[in-house]
Request: fold
Amino acid sequence: VIVIDDTSRIAYINQAFEYYTSVDSKEYTGKPASTLSIWPDLSKLAGLKSSSTIHGEVVMSFEGREPAYFDVRVSTVRWKSQRLGRVFILEDISERRRAEKSAFGAHEESIFSNDNIPVICILRAQDEKIIEVNRSFILELGYERKDVVGQSLLNIGIWDVHQRGEFFKILRSEGFEKNQPLSFVNLNREKL
Reply:
């Protein structure tokens, strides 16, 4: 969590941020937000016009270490009608990004446009929700992307409870699952 006041100075950084910077979080208090190495990316999100929470993703690079990927939510802090600043809530999603790269390799971009590959969907292990599907998924199963992203396969009725249990048992223990043959039910309720 990072709180920036209305003068673009750091009002608060929680101790979890120390892990990424190796600097005591109290050292940042009162300094310009621009002293944060991640600030150029955060400021782009903060500059977006929105009446609600802004959502995005940023990457923080480190010398001699792998980059860290963050899911970021930015909200304006107000008291009465006065804007006091912004709060940035960062969730480290590096492990998820590494698992995706491991599962799909260097061909990650082409995975979602190639018609000659099997049905593929990327699931979030934490809540079992679909975060992406490929073209074959849409063509073979008959679902629209907008109808499945953010949903679980079980809720949609694409697979049964037993199959789901076995799959997530492996996914949670290994961190990823690839080339797992599964049988799905399409939009017309036909088993594939």
Summary: The chain has seven helices and seven strands. The beta strands are 2-5, 10-13, 54-62, 65-79, 82-92, 121-123, 130-133. Confidence is low (pLDDT under 50) at residues 106-116.
